[in-house]
Design a protein that fits this description.
Distance between the termini: 67 Å
Order of helices and strands: HH
Largest sheet: none
Structural class: mainly alpha
Low-confidence stretches: none
Number of strands: 0
Number of helices: 2
Strand content: under 5%
Mean pLDDT: 88
């Protein structure tokens, strides 16, 4: 394998890992936000 191929594969692997981690973080944040909204709907509705 040429050095260019090794660099390309390493870059793709890093990008995939980064994207996966980002997706997990966003999923957890969204789940927490939805849970918080479900726990306290009355407080938001009060005038």
């Amino acid at each position: 394998m040429t050095p260019d191929a090794v660099t390309l594969i390493a870059t793709l692997a890093f990008a995939c890992g980064f994207a996966t981690a980002l997706l997990v973080v966003l999923t957890i944040k969204t789940a927490r936000m939805l849970r918080a909204l479900e726990d306290a709907p009355q407080q938001d509705v009060q005038p």
